[in-house]
Amino acid sequence: MATAQKPAGASSALRFEIDAKRLDELDRKHKLPGFASPQEHAQHGPLIIARGKGVFVWDANGKQYLDGSSAIWNVNLGFGNKEIADAVAQQLETLSFHLGLLNISTPPAIELAAKLAELAPPGLDRVFFTSGGSEANESVIRLTRLYHRLKGYKNKTVAIARLKGYHGSSCGAASLTGIDHFHEFFEPMLPDVRHIAPPYCYRCPLGKEYPSCAVACADELEKAIVAEGPDRVAFFIAEPVMGAGGVIPAPREYWTRIRQICDKYDVLMVADEVITGAGRTGKMFACEHWEVRPDIISCAKGISSGYLPLGAVIVHERIYQTLLDSPAGAAVWHGFTNTGNPACCAAGLKTLEIMERDGIVENSRKMGERLYQRLQELRASPIVGEIRALGLMAGVELVRNPRTREAFPESLGVGGHWRDAARSNGLLVRAVGDTLCMSPPLIITAQEIDLLIDKLKASLAETESWLAGQKQ
Question: Residue 243, by phi and psi: left (phi above 0), alpha (psi -120 to 50) or beta?
Answer without folding.
Answer: alpha
